[in-house]
Design a protein that fits this description.
Number of helices: 1
Helix content: 10-25%
Strand order of the largest sheet: 1-2
Shape: elongated
Number of strands: 2
Length: 65
C-alpha cells in the first residue's frame, strides 16, 4: 500500500505524466533589482537608538522560469 501511495505522489509531483508544456505560475519575486532598508531600534522614549542599513537585492532568475 505504501509503495502504491508513493508511486501516485511521485506521478503527481511530475505533472501527472500528461506531457503538456503548460507552465504553472510559481509565486515569487520577479527578476530585478530591489532596494531594502533594515531598521534596528533599541530603547524607548528619549533613550531610543535607531540605525538604518541599506541593502540591494538582485534576483536573477526564479524557479519555474
Amino acid at each position: 500500500m505504501a509503495l502504491a501511495v508513493s508511486a501516485v505522489l511521485l506521478w503527481a509531483a511530475c505533472g501527472l505524466g500528461g506531457g503538456s508544456n503548460n507552465v504553472i505560475p510559481v509565486p515569487g519575486t520577479p527578476a530585478g533589482t530591489y532596494s531594502l532598508t533594515v531598521t534596528g531600534t533599541i530603547g524607548s522614549g528619549s533613550a531610543t537608538l535607531q540605525r538604518n542599513f541599506s541593502l540591494t537585492l538582485t534576483v536573477r532568475w526564479a524557479i519555474g522560469h
